[in-house]
Here is the input.
Amino acid sequence: MQPILQLVAALLFDGAISWVRMLIALFLSIFVGIGFGIAANRSSSAERVLLPLFDILQTLPILAFFPLAIYIVMATLPPVIGINAAVILLIFTSMVWNIGFGAYEAIRTMPREFAEVAETFRLGPMERLSKVLVPAAMPKVVEQSMLSWSIGLFYLVTSEIFSTGSQQYSVRYGIGAALVHLAFSGDIASYVIGIAVFIAFVVVTRLTLFSYLEDRFVKRDLGVRRPKKGPSMMVGAAVERRFEIAGRIFERRTAAAIGRLTRIREARRVQRRIRDGSLIMLFALISVVILILLTNSGIRADEAGVLYAMALSLGRISAALAVIAAISIPLGIYIVFITKNGGSYTKLFQILASIPATLLLPALVIALRGAPSEGELVALLIFFLSGFWYMLFGIISTRATLDRSIGEVREAFGVRGGRAWRFVYLGAIMPGLITGTITAIAAEWNASIVAEYFTTSGVGAGTAVVSVGNGLGKLLDLALSSGNLQLMALGLINLTIIIIVLNRVVWKRAYNRVMSVYR
Here is the structure.
């Protein structure tokens, strides 16, 4: 183990490089997301195209496209610039969708008075943009940015440790690459210190950057300002302030009651446009695949291999999802309904969830080296860690909106034990469970690119490959390393189709059915 100060200094440098990538990706995501929100609101034609396009792109496992992104970027840019551009692009594509939809929603629902003021003062396009549209979007953008940052950390680490066995396809500096090197060099103590440094970066970012953004945009927008205390504060001013606050609350509640039906109609209209556009794009993709398969016998052979690999990956994901559900459902119910320390548990889990599953991949590889079917075990654990927190937090999130009458009815009718779990708890958490399942599956598909085929030879730690027998993630990795663009394209197209079909046919129907009961 190297000297502590030298180690920490090196890890801080690597962490700073990683955080620069994250900040660039976040800035680009906010810029593009606000642009998307404005364009989709200002033009009905743009809305019909952009909404379904964003909806489809946010459901895709973007990490599966990383090999293709590396291939294209590295072919057009110098190696050092190219690999960093590819990493930033991957992080950007993990962040931008939430931010974009947040900006769209904020601008769509902003008070009409904003537009009336712009018309009254005849603001020009740039003034309207800087003084009306961007300020209206920023509170929601900041809220979504905090979620997107957490998601981006997973892709940051994954992209830094991703390798196909070639130094050409790996970053030189970054917290993910540094931790892989420490783990496979056998310096476990330094590896643990590195994880602690990573968590410290996460905590400091939350306490500085996002606290500032919340104070600057979110709390100010909500009217959260503390009046300065002092002897000069008059009783009359305090009473006037209270009436002012009461008036604002009354106005907001009245406006909310009057506008509720309009918002419901607007939401349904947007959903119809997204659904119609998504179906058109899905039909176009399927038509392209069928046309290609009918005209090329060589592609048909590759297609059969892709379908077989995808079926194996889907089987692993389903097995991991079953284990996730078996643990997260009872644990989530315990936190929501049974324990009185739910808040403390949630804070603890938030800290643990800040460690991306891929950051633990080297430790899992070392711990399971030599075990029977070690490749399958590592893949299953990575799939589990990638999706577990999404499902658990989806269930825990129901606590915030849970009707107190559920507990009162349970107590009044004496519903306890197994009957309470079956007739009360499971039904109450179902909306969060469906949402968590959707996001967990997406996270597992993303993890397949490193879970099914992992090599560290690109980060200077010697060759150490963990591989499953077959799978879509492995297929895409090997297609990149061999330069087989045809196989890579087929894998991505088929994956896109199956994800869209499953989301539309299974998960969105399940979610709408559950939510119709709660409405």
Summary: DSSP finds 18 helices and two strands in the chain. The first strand starts at residue 453 and ends at 455.
